[in-house]
Amino acid sequence: MKQPLANILPVAPTPFHADGRVDEDGMRRVIDCMIDQGVDAICILANYSEQFLLSDEERLLLMRLSLEHTAGRVPVIVTTSHFSTEIATQRALAAQSMGAAMVMMMPPYHGSGLFPAPQGIFEHFEAVSNAISIPIMVQDAPLSGVTMTVELLARLAKELENVSYFKIECPFAADKLAALIEAAGDHIAGPFDGEEAVTLLADLDAGATGTMTSALFPELIRPIVTEFRAGNKDAALAQWQKCLPLINHENRQCGLRAAKVVFREGGVIGSDYVRHPLKPMSDRTRSRLLQLAGDLDVLALRWGK
To answer: Would the keyword Oxidoreductase be found if you checked this record's keyword annotation (predicted)?
Structure first.
């Protein structure tokens, strides 16, 4: 990449047929829709891609399919998290060999109580960084149960050449982003937030240069970032206020199912199936989601019609 990635790098949902099989053509249509949404990059195999419900064979299939179909139109970020350092390294090498622009990794964890000490976390990222030549994004999220201190994150940035992007989506993310930028700013190419942009304005105030949302409606969230970075903070605030009801509903009520429901409604994919033990969205939550998305005329609702 000639320039650091910024603005909006959404996570692609993984479409399944109604019987639970991976929908390969649906995955291609997801990628095409996201590119039409004006995204700056696409992240695959992340938590919002149901990565924890995919077999190793399915991961490999989806990675190859996504990179081949994207064909360089936008950069692709591949999530390669695993508790095993060896497996995380092999996943990162495979992603790089297929043309990924970046990999994203959570710290190693298994459940909420099995994770290494800070030095072990550092060595985990060090092994991957030494094996590849593309950037690594560190995902700091409550899902792992791992507390990654600013000191540890700054050390990763300062001492590991390829660790240069950070997705901070823990409580009080803005304060953590500001502290991390102060501690290691020259070593950070991309400070990002997540959580569907529910804290985006505060995180931009703290120095974030982009956000990693779902694929639900990045075409309307991206202007929040671009206007803010251009110095048009009133316009950024107005756009965030416009988007916030849908952002909040997705973040608090829908989770990863939101993009699938809207993509199905808009003809992008044929089914919004989520794999067990996840459960389908309730009719009540679905109705509100589609109302809010319709009020904003999100692209995915009409992309395939």
So the answer is: no
How far apart CA 231 and CA 119 sit, in angstroms, is 40
User: Which run of H or of E encompasses 70?
Assistant: helix 56-70
In a domain, 2, yes or no: no
Please state the three-class secondary structure of 155-206 as a single string. HHHHHCCCEEEEEECCCCHHHHHHHHHHHHHHHCCEEEECHHHCCHHHHHHC
Helix (H, G, I), strand (E, B) or coil at 133: coil
Helix (H) or strand (E) holding 285: helix 283-295
CA dihedral 60, 4, 105, 31 (to 10 degrees): -40
CA distance 124 to 83: 9
Number of independent structural domains in the chain: 1
What distance in Å separates the CA atoms of residue 194 and residue 174, rounded to the nearest whole number? 11
**Residues noted as catalytic:** 167
Q: What is the pTM of this model?
A: 0.97
Q: 23: domain CATH number? A: 3.20.20.70
Q: What is the pLDDT of residues 179-223, one digit of tens each?
A: 999 999 999 999 999 999 999 999 999 999 999 999 999 999 999
